[in-house]
Amino acid sequence: MLKYVLKRVGLALVTLLIIVFLLFWLVRVMPGNPFPSERMNDIQIANKRAEMGLDDPVLVQFWRYITRALQGDFGNGTSLYYGVPINTVMSTAIGNSFRIGGIAVLLGTAVGLLLGITAALHRGKFLDGFCTVFSIIGVCVPSYVFLIFLQYNFAFRIPFFPYFFDASRFAFSSVLPSLSLSLFTMSTIARFTRNEMVEVFDSDYVRLAASKGLHGRRLVLRHVLRNALIPIVTVLAPLVVDLLTGALVVEKIYGINGIGKLMVDAITGEGIDYNYVLALGILYSALYIGVMLLVDLLYGVLDPRIRVSAKGEEA
Amino acid sequence: MSESTKAILAVKNLDISFRTNAGVVHAIRGVTFDMEKGETVAIVGESGSGKSVSCKAIMGLLDSNAIVNSGEIWYTYTDENGQTQKVDLLKMPIKQLRQKINGQHIAMVFQDPMTSLDPTMPIGKQIMEGILLHKKTTKEAARARALELLQLVGITDAEKRFKNYPHQLSGGMRQRVVIAIALAADPDVLICDEPTTALDVTIQAKILELIKDIQQKMGLSVIYITHDLGVVAKVADYVDVMYAGKIIEVGNVNEIFYDPKHPYTWGLLSAMPDLETDDDRLYSIPGSPPNLLHEPPGDAFADRNPFALAIDKKAAPPFFRVSPTHIAATWLLHPDAPKIEMPKELQLRLERARKEVEKYL
């Protein structure tokens, strides 16, 4: 098993390196540059380019970038927050995004599972229909529309929650964005859980378990849920990454200084901030690869069939 | 088989419909049969005749769209205080059925061993589950019993296999495990729903031998659901032939195989492959079973029956008694009916089979 894990981690690192290179190259060939052309003349820009090493061959630049990045230095802002180390700005943004996204993940998964299980246990009855309608609405309504709805009702008409994000009252002001972000995850998980469980309920092995005399909660916990969870993990993984990396629009609307907002600003600011685009791109990719790796390993824990075939690979 | 007071299991006038998108399907139209302790009863019939549904009704495993219109399933057993209890399983709340009957009194072996084991649980644990549920024992005792069961069903290396997951076992082995699970809490009645259909022919015989062997060792009563007459001949004491949701002929195994009375049973026996027939083609009963969405008036088999009488289209035949143990529902047995014998070809065949068997006795 250990060999399998190491192999997977190694592959993940190679993938990441390739992605970093592609990102680096794409950012360089992208039209536009880090300098606001209206306020700088050609000579100033040429000087700046030389100073930042942008005239060197791409491979040389890449080598320089990657050696620094490996030491944890992702450079300074070039047009956004000029001269301030990216790490400082990013750590605040990551903190905000992860906390709000994290709450949304927990809320969405917990409520989604609960809704899905409830629907499956009451198949064909009112609760099932209710959960289905809820999850269809949840999947269809974009999170920022739901956020505006929440803002209007619970910040404007009933001024209970803050209208905009306020870092000094973090817990309180993260309720509305977290809630609106969790809606999609909640609905997707609910729908999936319901369908998976209904399928497992219909399976021969659950019938066999019932014929042993198992019933009620014991039957659901031991035989139904465990088997239904395996495919749910697959859908959950990309949803988690999406939430953690910050929803661009929600952060923008609610004025959260998160990485989603940072990404938008880095691209649409006065000049494209190469270093931010790169650093954020790497962060997204690393998270995605990391979570996928985690899911693959988690599969082995949940599904013995996969665990053993992994062992087979090892031999 | 007469109505017996000694019956361990007695199904009376079972009548079940299914709600489907196309309408209500009347799948079971008054099934009555009973069995005594230690007997082996085979229920035979083609797919869709209602064999499985009848047994699922006994186990309380009917799908949620099933409607039980009427019927009783009387089960007689000795409870933990040594009292003889007689209960109607159809009236029993599902929770009570699971706690008191399923597993410890009536257990079931399913058709497909590839799908009937939980893929995420080691097989040993799946066997222990039933023991721990019904017997007041420690985990260690349950484990020891599970190992014993694995050996009983012929799994070598029980200790090692105990921790295996279902996918690590072959089909035949899995079916052995399913049998071990069914036996875990010492049931009195074992329902085998086509236990060998999904297995290789070579394994089939072994599994049948195994069930027979265990039946003798543990004094079980066994119900076989099957469409394989070869299986029936091998294991059954009594045979119930089912067609379109009804039992149409009942008899002991000799009566059904050597002196069948119902044209449908003739058809089934003629459709069995035989090494010595002159005809190259395998006989099959013409037509297909009636669609029970629209129940046919009269005898459901009339349309496919070359010997059908005019009355078959109008009224369903009652049972006529042939011998104390042999009854058949066909108008051909009515005193006023014309004398019609089974087809010559089948007669010769059965005669041949009888001589073949006598050679070995």
pLDDT < 50 runs, ≥5 residues of chain B: none
> If you compute it from the alpha carbons, what radius of gyration of chain A comes out, rounded to the nearest whole angstrom?
24 Å
Cα-atom radius of gyration of chain B: 21 Å
According to CATH, what is the topology of the domain at 93-258 in chain A?
Answer: MetI-like fold
Strand content range of chain A: under 5%
Look up the CATH topology of the largest domain in chain B.
Answer: Rossmann fold
Tally the structural domains of chain B: 2
Separation, N- and C-terminal Cα atoms of chain B: 26 Å
Mean pLDDT of chain B comes to 88
Distance between the termini of chain A: 10 Å
Could you say which overall geometry of chain B the principal axes of the C-alpha atoms support?
globular
In round numbers, the mean pLDDT of chain A is 86
Write out key terms for the chains shown.
A: 315 residues, mainly alpha, disordered C terminus, B: alpha/beta, Rossmann fold, 8-stranded mixed β-sheet, globular
Structure at a glance:
Chain A has 315 residues and is mostly helical. Helices cover 77% and strands 0% of the residues of chain A. In chain B, helix 3 runs parallel beside helix 6, helix 4 (139-152) packs across helix 6 (171-183) and helix 6 packs parallel to helix 7 (201-218).
